[in-house]
Design goal:
The structure is a homotrimer. Chain A has a single domain (4-132), classed as Sandwich (Jelly Rolls), CATH 2.60.120.460. In chain A, 26% of the residues lie in helices and 38% in strands. The longest helix of chain A is centred in the middle third of the chain and has 14 residues, at 56-69. By secondary structure, chain A is an alpha+beta fold. The two termini of chain A are 15 Å apart. In chain A, the strands form 2 sheets. In chain A, strands 1-8-3-5-6 form a 5-stranded antiparallel beta sheet. Chain A has 3 helices and 8 strands, in the order ββαββααββββ. In chain A, strand 5 and strand 6 form a beta hairpin. Chains B and C meet through helix 3 and strand 8 of B and strand 4, helix 2 and strand 5 of C.
């Protein structure tokens, strides 16, 4: 009944880590055949998204654009210096839901699961829950 | 089978209201032990997000930055004067999914559930559905 | 157990297509009475959102503002010329979850389901899965 937990190590302040194969591994380990899997990030300065896992430049362009839109040096009230990280997390989202069929994570051809770090480097957690159909 | 409904009263045009304890209360009332809970906002100018519930300045910084990125005074076509509210709602999201274990809403240490008002003040609704594992 | 698939034809590079009635039709066809329905977009340059389906100007304002915030002509690294489309997709989201009660898709009065094309015109897919309560 308890969720499964992944560890994700990040090496920069802002970074996308592809966790697709880790999520697939949890589905195998649990033995879920058909249903949904929910990936949930229990942090307030990191989120989860879905996008291209082929060309790594897409991840770089995404992280750069997020930093352009929500720069670290704006005049924020929150004194920890990471208000930008909180805001980027909300824009990204805290969880993502996927379909599982015949034990396989159903993704589009080019899709991967992005763990999005906005206040690293840190060792982060990612929670995973499967619901059978 | 019917969803549960919360009322959320807002007092400004743009405002974050922490509804974490209200969602936990619904889980207690329903008696859900293990599964997921989905919080759904049936409005088009208010959404729901997950972020820090400790320092209230994070909520203020978020609301200010959203207003910077999507200002109310841009030259929109929609004549009701709240196109910015619709766009902020899409960027925030309309629903969020959470895990429930042993009757408890599973959140990260610093996480709270943000009801995000973008066209208040109003009395809003929030729908909640629980699915048992 | 397999998901249902919709086809969505788009006619511009950036465009919102209302797929609400198509999703409701899938629920009828499956015969789901009570539970949830998840709409999942298996692409990396198109997403799904929830917003107003009454005044079509809201869709136009949304698409224009997204193009303002994430312009196509920024200096991206990804060479396919559609980094803006990938970033807009992440900001929009890849899936949305809805409640179903007595065979009916539960939406707020003004809500519709937006298929958001950011790299069209194309023929796109949309996956739908229902989970009974």
């Amino acid at each position: 009944m308890k969720h499964h937990e992944l560890q994700v190590k990040t090496t920069s302040r802002s970074q996308v880590v592809d966790i697709t194969s880790k999520v697939q591994q949890v589905i195998y380990d649990i033995g879920l055949q058909n249903g949904i899997v929910i990936v949930y990030v229990p942090h307030t300065t990191a989120g989860v998204a879905v996008n291209e896992n082929a060309d790594p430049d897409v991840k770089i362009d995404f992280i750069r654009k997020m930093s352009d839109m929500v720069p670290v040096d704006s005049s924020y009230k929150h004194l920890e210096g990471n208000s930008d990280s909180h805001i980027k997390t909300i824009l990204t989202n805290t969880s993502q839901t996927f379909f599982v069929e015949n034990g396989k994570l159903m993704l589009g051809t080019w899709q991967g699961i992005y763990f999005c770090e906005y206040d690293g480097p840190r060792t982060r957690k990612c929670w995973i829950k499967c619901l059978e159909e």
